Amino acid sequence: MYANVFEFTKFRKFLAEYQERRQAVEPNFSRTEFCNLLGLPNTRSYFNDVVQGKKVTDTMLGRFIDVIGLKGNEAKYFEAMVKFDQGKTVEVRDAAFAEMMRLNKNPQAIVNSDSYEFFANWYNSTIYAILEILDVADDVSELAEKIFPPVSEKKIQASLALMQKMELIRRNDQGFWKPTKESMATVQQCKSQMVLQYQKQCLELSKQALDSEGKESRDMTTFTFSVSAKGRKKVEAAAEKFKDVVRKIVAADTDTPTEVEHINLHVFSNLKK
């Protein structure tokens, strides 16, 4: 492999570096030749267009995988990177991000300071989602008034600055901050300290929502049960299926977003091993 796909979080950068490294070994493997192998002999600019931001269709996604020779989890990881970059909703991108974390078995965590900062505060991802339904420019007072739990205007401004730096948001023609379709800057393994810290903050959010007397939507259910080891595995599978169902509902929702919802799902043992 000319470039390890698991060392990347942006598929366009992976494609560019893969082609460059392969051409260094195979001089005839130019970007034009890449287009030929993709079945586009009359479209010499396609590869450049993709690297610069052109959307990759499902058909071309399969062709990229074939030309590069990605197999198994490598192919799945590349597909997840594309979905993470091109996903139309936060939920689709979050699902792709989770898939990338699940598949990335690289013992060296791919981390940078921006990513740690993004996941260090729960409200960054929440503000990112809210920007899809709320018009926010320089004045963040309305966002500060509506976000739950409360976040100061100073923290909101810092959050916007961070996401702009990470290329997660940019101003639209009206001057409002809106999410981009570009990837977050990093992917870590599922049990990384970065993700664990974020999950701990989400638990605190649930506690605040439970104690709140506002009219915000909330539906919290807790129950404890005894079950066999075989039954436990079925419960865990059902939990995964539930997450998939929610993602599909969100992905298929064509109405204009008006709500930002948060789900915490916890399955853990009350008995020590």
How many E-type strands? 2
Count helical runs.
12
Rg calc: 21 Å
Shape: globular
Spatial gap, N to C terminus? 41 Å
Strand content: under 5%
Helix percent band: 40-55%
Show unreliable segments. Answer: 107-111, 182-193
Average pLDDT number: 81
Structural class: mainly alpha
What pattern of helices and strands is seen along the backbone? HHHHHHHHHHEEHH
Trace the largest sheet across and list its strands.
Answer: 1-2
Largest beta-sheet details = 2 strands, antiparallel
Structure characterization notes:
- Helix content is 54%, strand content 2%.
- The chain is mainly α and 273 residues long.
- The chain has a two-stranded antiparallel ribbon.
- Helix 5 packs antiparallel against helix 6 (90-103) and helix 8 (122-130) crosses helix 10.
- The longest helix has 24 residues, at 229-252.
- The radius of gyration is 21 Å and the shape is globular.
- The two termini are 41 Å apart.
- The model is unreliable at 107-111 and 182-193 (pLDDT under 50).
Short description:
This protein is an all-alpha fold and 273 residues long. It is built from twelve helices and two strands, in the order ααααααααααββαα. α7 runs parallel beside α11.
